[in-house]
Design the sequence.
């Protein structure tokens, strides 16, 4: 009977140790993944911002003021707003400080483009950062 209890005790001890070892491996893996994701996200934010902005510019290049903002801010036919928006596209403006004109509607159209560009760039950058983090995690999991 003592031998049976000793064997059962040894089996329980081995099982406990192997579960603990598996848990430690899982914790180490999760830590490596978290580090890899953080590194990838930091690198992507710096490295991929120009690409995100270029993607956003390309996407907005076929857009008009009315298509982007609507007609709520126009007092007549939106031609001044459209001209400002088109000017910003053609000149690849990225800063509202570069939008200057005596005409308020032209200025508003130009600024609307820059604002839309900033918003879309941020969205695209967020997507690219997430993709980089996902790729880093997949690489770590493949190694394990």
Sequence:
């Amino acid at each position: 009977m003592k031998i049976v209890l000793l064997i059962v005790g040894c089996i329980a001890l081995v099982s406990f140790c192997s579960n603990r070892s598996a848990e430690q491996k899982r914790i180490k893996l999760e830590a490596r993944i978290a580090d890899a994701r953080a590194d990838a996200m930091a690198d992507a934010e710096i490295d991929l911002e120009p690409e995100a902005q270029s993607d956003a510019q390309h996407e907005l290049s076929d857009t008009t003021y009315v298509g982007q903002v609507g007609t709520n801010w126009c007092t007549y036919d939106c031609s001044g707003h459209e001209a400002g928006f088109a000017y910003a596209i053609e000149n690849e403006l990225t800063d509202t400080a570069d939008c200057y004109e005596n005409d308020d509607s032209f200025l508003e159209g130009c600024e609307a483009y820059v604002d839309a560009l900033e918003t879309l760039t941020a969205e695209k950058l967020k997507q690219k950062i997430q993709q980089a983090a996902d790729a880093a995690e997949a690489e770590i999991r493949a190694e394990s």
Remarks:
- The chain has a mean pLDDT of 83.
- The first helix runs from residue 2 to 47.
- The radius of gyration is 28 Å.
